[in-house]
Amino acid sequence: MANAFFSDLLSTIADRGRLLLGRLEWPIDLSQKSIGVAELCEALLSGRGEASGVAIARETLERYSRLNPDQKIEFFGVLASKYGPDREVLRRAISAFATSPGPETETELHFATEPLRQELFRRLNRAPGGTQAIVRMREDLLDFRRSNPELGTVDRCMSHLLASWFNRGFLVLRRIDWSTPAIILEKIIRYEAVHEIRDWDDLRRRIDSIDRRCYAFFHPALVDEPLIFVEVALIEAMPSAIAPLLAETRPIAPPGKARTAVFYSISNCQQGLQGISFGNFLIKQVVEELRRELPKLETFVTLSPVPGFMRWIKSDAGMAAGADEALVATLGDPGWAANPSTAEPLRKSVEMLAAEYFLHGKVKNGRSVDSVARFHLGNGASLERINWLGDSSLKALREGAGLMVNYLYDLDAIEANHEAYANDGAVVASPAVKRMARPARPRLQLPGGSSN
To answer: Angle 182-191/200-207 helices, nearest 10 degrees?
Structure first.
C-alpha cells in the first residue's frame, strides 16, 4: 500500500514537472521526439529543480526503452567515454592532496574521482519505477559487454550503485505460500532456474504442503518482484536424489518429525542484479526462521546441481585429472545413465573425477571452478557428500553427469569454513569426499634426503 502511494506520488511529481518544463525557459523540450537520450542525460545533469528532474528522468528512461540494441550500445559507449570523472577537477584534487595530505583533501580527492555517470544513474533513479528500469538497463549492459568489453567501466558504476541500493538493510524476507498474490506465484514459476515447475499443481506441492517451505527476498522499490527465492523440503534425513523430493506421490511426514531442512533450489530472479549477492543473507535468515518455527531441526543441507562438471571433464584440467576421450564420449550420450550395466562400471572413475573437481578445480582467483560450490563454500558451508546419479534429468546429465551434492551448513562451523575459503581458497570437505579423490602421488626421494 505504502509503495503504491509513493509510486503514485512520484508520477504526479513527474507530470507536474512536464507542465513546469513547458512554462519555463528550459534547454530541452520534451515534446520533441528527435531529442536523443544523450541530450536528455545532459539536461538531467544540468537541472536543479526536483519536479523537472523527475520529469526528465522518466522521459530519459522511456526513450531508452525504445532504443534498438545498436542504439543502446552506442548510448553505453557515450557513458563510457564522456561521463567519467572531471579530469581537471581530479587533477586539482590530486595536486592538493599531494601538497597537503589530510582528511579534507582526502575527501575532496574521493569525490573528484567519482565518474559523472554515477550521478546520472542517481538522478535517473528519481523517476517513477526508476530503480526497476535501471536494473533492466543493466541486464542489457551485461549482454552487450560480452562483445564490447570497453563497456565494463559503465558496468562497474552500475553494479556499485545497485549493491548500495540493494544492501541487506533494504531487503524484506517473505514466505511464499498458496495465499501469496497470483502475480508473485506466476513469477516463481517463471524464475525457477534449477528444477522446472511444470504447472500450478506442481507449484502447490512445493509451497503449500506441510513438509515444504518457500522464502523470497523483496525490495521496496521493486513491487511484487522477487529478487531471489529458496525452496525447502522438511524431511528426516539427508537426501541423495532429487526425484523423491519432487515426486507427486511422495510420503508426507508432519513437520514436527523432520530433523533435516533441505535447500533444494535457489533461484536468482533479476538478471540485472547479477554479481550482487543475496543468497548468503537469504540462507542464514531462512535458517533462523526455520529454527524458530521448528526447534527440533538438526541438519541444514542443500541438494545442489553440478552445472560445470561435464565442461571441466572435457577441458585440459579434466584430462590431467584422469578423464579420457572414451569416458567423455560415453558420458556425452545421456542414454548411459538408464542402463545399469553401462552406468555402474563408470561410477568409481566419475566419483574420483568429481572429488578432484571440487577439491582441486580452481579458477584464476583461486576459487572453486564450480559456480554453485563458490556460492555455498563462500557462505561457510562444507562439502558433505557427492551423490551418484542424484538427478537423471537430461539437463543434469548433460551438465553434471547426473551428480548432485550436499553442502552442509553446520551452524557452529560456518564462520571458520567461510574464513578458510575466503582467505586460502580451502575447500572444507567430509572424509567421505576426500576418500573419493585419487591417492596423492608419492614424493620421489632424491639423494640427500630431499624430495620433489
So the answer is: 100
